[in-house]
Amino acid sequence: MNHRFRDVVIALILAAGIIAPVWLWMRAPSSENQLGSAISGPTPISGTLAVAVDRSLQPVAKIQANAFVEQYPQAKIDLSTESTRPVLQLLERRVAAALIEGALSAREDSLLSTLKRPLKRQPVARNALVLVVNRANPVRAVSMDNLKALFSGKISDWKALGGSPGRIVACLDGSNLRARTLLSELLFGKTEALVASAEPDMPRLLQRVRSDRYSLAVMTLPEYAVALRSGDDAGSIRAVPVSAGGDPVSASSETVYTGKYPLSTDIFYLYDPYNPLATGFGAWLSKEGQKLFERGDMAPYEQLVRTIIIK
User: Fold this and answer.
1) 205-215 tens-digit pLDDT
2) Which of 22, 157, 166, 196 sees the fewest Cβ atoms within 10 Å?
3) pTM
4) Which domains does the chain carry?
5) Res. 310 pLDDT band, cuts 50 70 90
6) DSSP string computed for the chain
7) What is residue 28's predicted lDDT score, i.e. its pLDDT?
């Protein structure tokens, strides 16, 4: 009798040792465990994300970051204060994402291809380079062929462009290396091919155009829009329309979006796809953020479809 009781007890202990672990493994995790795992690390809408931004894109980047954080309070977007070489910051892993003007140069593309963990790139907006002159300059339009001749040194007098005789002084913002690279690639298909002088920064570039009727400055559309809103520049500078085989076209959000303006560029978001918040911010830029790019004086990459419900 004692032997039977002992055998039964042993059998029950052995069965419990098998059933209990299986039950624990198969049961669904509690809601508390799910909540803990969801907030323990970065997610597409929480955590901290460091983003490097080209100088000319910083105002619109602030608009996007503030709107994103307002909707997702658990997220924090730190925009890098180092305003040059955002791609280098990505390469050195000082940031997890970057917002850049125009496509990558061949050298940048080559460097990024060496990364063991490749970055993703997505176009998120459209922008443009604008030719700006003193209002006293009589030139009404410039062709792409004229620009190639001008920035290669083959044309050096405004008379060749239909203006008054005078030496053309082509100027760029020396602090905006990417704008210089973009213009060179748009005109010549390669970098470092421009014959032009450089002012130290945008304020001094604008001052040059205001005070010199023979100067020709190149800047981005948002930079030109900001200048027009300034009391110092609004009445003393103007943009020159550009033609590419047809009628001259002025730079605007509409002509940039449709591709009619010849000096149009794309804005790219580069990011680490293994960083959840970097991926989430990219999804925001491609959807909700599209309408905010227009507040930054540029054009969205895609117009959002609006549904009108008629009752």
Assistant:
1) 999 999 999 99
2) 22
3) 0.80
4) 42-126+265-300 (3.40.190.10), 128-264 (3.40.190.10)
5) low
6) -HHHHHHHHHHHHHHHHHHHHHHHHHSPPPHHHHHHHHHSS-BTTBEEEEEEE-GGGHHHHHHHHHHHHHH-TTEEEEE-S--S-HHHHHHTTS-SEEEEESSPPHHHHHHHTT-SSPPEEEEEEEEEEEEEEETT-----EEHHHHHHHHTTS--BGGGGTS-S-B-EEEEETT-HHHHHHHHHHHHSSSS----EEESSHHHHHHHHHH-TTEEEEEEHHHHHHHHTSTTTTTTEEEPPEESSSS-B---HHHHHHT-STTEEEEEEEE-TT-HHHHHHHHHHHTTTHHHHGGGTSEESSPPP------
7) 44
